């Protein structure tokens, strides 16, 4: 029996990479999934097709996570189409910019924190509309506990998401809703920009001996949104092969 049968999930930024893996994994577990995308509708529809092929329902909705009105519309459209919401996975991310603090521009800083603001208001919508017993998972980064030069603004915008989540867990716990964050390490996606020497160094530091894959993160998300994880909330869980 599918563990998420009949559940309705929103997975933001799910047309590719980690988000796609999460959406398809939840679909295989029986959840009906709202796939969101910014510009690549064709890729989003591929994910919808894959979820439907697994036996679940899915729709694609275009959402710019920098636009609060569009975030509110996403939740309204989800409720209109499926009649409820049980799971929110905040995966959408903007451009990750790594620069020395002395060199970071205001525009670059704002570009990252605009998405963080969007995550906050997506959490607000979930707090208002998610069903009792629901599950909320947001993605952060292991960089919040493994500081590197040039990573200040990036790690800062992710650390804020962790704090949004731990506070929200205390606000909605009385309704049986769990709120957690997952912090991946370096993960093999089409957005990974590292040379082979850097990859080898990261692998050498990772006890499990390889880089992460999107499905590794998706499996961790699936665990946290399952019924079995009903006693896990307010936690920041690292899915990174043990690198930190």
UniProtKB/TrEMBL annotation:
GO molecular function: oxidoreductase activity, acting on CH-OH group of donors
Pfam families: adh_short_C2
PANTHER family assigned: NADPH-DEPENDENT ALDEHYDE REDUCTASE-LIKE PROTEIN, CHLOROPLASTIC-RELATED, RE15974P
Protein name in the entry: SDR family oxidoreductase
Family stated for the protein in its record: Belongs to the short-chain dehydrogenases/reductases (SDR) family.
Domain called Ketoreductase: residue spans: 7-185
Superkingdom in the source lineage: Bacteria
InterPro entries assigned to the protein according to its UniProt record, in alphabetical order: KR_dom, NAD(P)-bd_dom_sf, SDR_fam
SMART domains (UniProt xref): PKS_KR
Family annotation (Gene3D superfamilies): NAD(P)-binding Rossmann-like Domain
Keywords: Oxidoreductase
């Amino acid at each position: 029996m599918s563990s998420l049968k009949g559940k309705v999930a929103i997975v933001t930024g799910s047309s590719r990479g980690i988000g796609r893996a999460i959406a398809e994994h939840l679909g295989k577990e029986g959840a009906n999934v709202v796939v969101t995308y910014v510009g690549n509708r064709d890729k989003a529809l591929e994910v919808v097709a894959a979820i439907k092929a697994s036996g679940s329902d899915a729709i694609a909705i275009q959402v710019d996570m920098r636009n609060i009105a569009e975030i509110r519309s996403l939740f309204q459209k989800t409720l209109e189409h499926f009649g409820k919401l049980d799971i929110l996975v905040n995966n959408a991310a903007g451009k990750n910019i790594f620069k020395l603090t002395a060199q970071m521009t205001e525009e670059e800083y704002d570009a990252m924190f605009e998405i963080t603001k969007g995550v906050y208001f997506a959490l607000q919508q979930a707090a208002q509309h998610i069903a009792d017993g629901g599950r909320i998972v947001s993605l952060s980064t292991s960089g919040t506990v493994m500081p590197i030069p040039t990573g200040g603004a990036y790690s800062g915008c992710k650390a804020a998401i962790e704090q949004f989540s731990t506070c929200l867990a205390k606000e909605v716990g009385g309704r049986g809703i769990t709120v957690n964050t997952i912090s991946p390490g370096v993960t093999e996606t089409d957005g990974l920009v590292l040379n082979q020497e850097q990859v080898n160094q990261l692998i050498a530091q990772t006890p499990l001996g390889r880089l992460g894959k999107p499905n590794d993160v998706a499996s961790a998300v699936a665990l946290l949104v399952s019924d079995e994880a009903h006693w896990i909330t307010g936690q920041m869980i690292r899915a990174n092969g043990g690198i930190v």
